[in-house]
Design brief:
The complex is a heterodimer. Chain A is an all-alpha fold. Chain A has 8 helices and 2 strands. The chains are: A mainly alpha, B mainly alpha. At the A-B interface, helix 2, helix 4, helix 5, helix 6 and helix 8 of A face helix 2, helix 3 and helix 4 of B.
Chain lengths: 196, 233
């Protein structure tokens, strides 16, 4: 199954006519602050999910740090280098914000091994409708994986098993599990649509 | 830093798995991504998909065919038990966590509401208690002014303070409808006292006492104070 539109940052869909994040960043750099709202709409959910995983169990500060990321985006947009993907820049800002926060708190937390925390950003009823479409598209794309890839993807993302356990269960090296997961992500992305 | 060539990923790698494994580890560490914009774009897209899969994980489980068995090491009964555990334990934990968070939020909101209500009740109780005291004081024979008038300086000051409190209570809202009715009656009487001179003629003082008695202000104020304290209807 292949959706008619591309998968976006939050596993949602992006219309082919919709301007890219790079376009909105250029607008922001040109002084059009309303462009920030478009970037926020595009990246709010993935940044929430990213920060939530980085700050295991510190759900209270996720929103605060996400706001900090967008504030930095506004304040330092002139430092953004043309030609670089906006998503990569925002995720780096988020990673740095999380690291600074953890350093202030005096603890270091590595990226979590599994998806053990619920999405802190509760969808509105309208978002739920879109979410249902995303889930259908993802399910369809999963059907296109090889049985082994699918087994690993389900074990990791659906059953939330750590890589180590998947490797033990399937009798292979942890590196093989990680590589297969990475290859599966590439395959899923191709099935779901072109790069945004 | 890991060297990264997105084109290479579409073709067989001499050492299959090794580079991709490292790239998978790098997904959630954008601060360590290579400088190459194409590589960053590739990783950013895959990270977004990675996060989306994680967010939608439980929903994806619904209706999906079970993953193919890769290893036959356990009996059917053990496998069934494992499936039940995998399905039930996380669901139960999530449900329990959600319910616990909901209950906690409800409790906090309820406590805040109760605290707010207690503060409001205390202000109204104090108002009725001090009004009752003032009405009782007004019944007493006071010291006299020079011309034989009643010296009601203290009562007047008290009435002014209570009038100000009455304004604030009216703005905050009453805990009971009846309390608001009695406050309004007291407010009128307090206004009369507050706007008088310190020294009242005997006639004017009597008039004010009669007004209070006609409206049963002392009894009503006392009753409302007791009621708000929960000491009777």
């Amino acid at each position: 199954m292949s959706p008619a539109v591309a998968l976006t940052a939050d596993g949602g869909f992006q219309s082919p006519d919709e301007p890219s994040p790079e376009y909105w960043m250029a607008q922001l750099k040109a002084g059009k602050e309303e462009a920030l709202a478009h970037l926020m709409a595009r990246f709010e959910r993935p940044l929430f999910a990213f920060l939530h995983r980085r700050l295991q169990g510190e759900a209270g500060v996720v929103q605060e740090l996400a706001q900090e990321v967008f504030l930095k985006c506004l304040q330092h947009c002139q430092r953004f280098e043309e030609g670089r993907p906006v998503a990569a820049w925002l995720f780096t800002l988020a990673a740095n914000a999380a690291t600074d926060h953890l350093r202030r708190r005096g603890r270091e937390v590595p990226p979590p091994e599994t998806f053990d925390a619920p999405d802190p950003h509760q969808p509105s009823p309208w978002e739920s409708v879109d979410q249902s479409r995303r889930i259908q598209a993802l399910k369809g794309a999963l059907e296109g994986l090889t049985p082994r890839q699918r087994a690993m993807v389900l074990a990791y993302y659906v059953h939330e098993h750590p890589v180590k356990r998947i490797a033990q269960d399937l009798g292979c090296a942890e590196g093989t599990v990680k590589a297969t997961l990475f290859q599966s992500l590439q395959k899923l992305r191709k099935t779901l649509g072109p790069q945004p | 830093m890991t060297s990264f060539d997105p084109q290479r990923l579409d073709s067989p790698s001499p050492q299959p798995g090794l580079d991709e494994a490292r790239l998978f580890e790098l997904l959630e560490q954008p601060e360590l991504w290579p400088e190459d914009p194409a590589a960053q774009a590739e990783l950013a897209t895959l990270l977004e998909l990675h996060l989306a899969l994680g967010s939608h994980g439980p929903s994806l489980a619904e209706g999906l065919a079970p993953a193919p068995r890769t290893r036959w090491t356990t009996s059917w009964s053990l496998a069934a038990a494992a499936i039940l555990l995998v399905a039930l334990v996380p669901t139960f934990t999530i449900l329990q966590r959600t319910q616990s968070l909901k209950a906690q939020a409800q409790d906090t909101a309820r406590l805040e509401q109760l605290a707010q209500k207690r503060t409001q009740d205390r202000a109204w109780i104090a108002f009725f208690r001090q009004s009752t005291t003032l009405l009782q004081d007004f019944e007493q024979n006071p010291a006299l002014c020079k011309k034989g008038e009643e010296d009601r300086r203290q009562e007047r000051e008290m009435a002014m303070a209570l009038l100000e409190a009455s304004h604030q209570l009216a703005a905050q809202g009453a805990p009971l409808k009846e309390a608001e009715v009695i406050r309004a009656s007291l407010h009128s009487w307090l206004s009369e006292v507050a706007f008088e001179e310190n020294c009242l003629t005997v006639e004017r003082a009597r008039e004010l006492r009669q007004w209070a008695a006609a409206h049963n202000l002392e009894t009503e104020s006392e009753r409302m104070e007791r009621r708000l304290r929960g000491e009777g209807a």
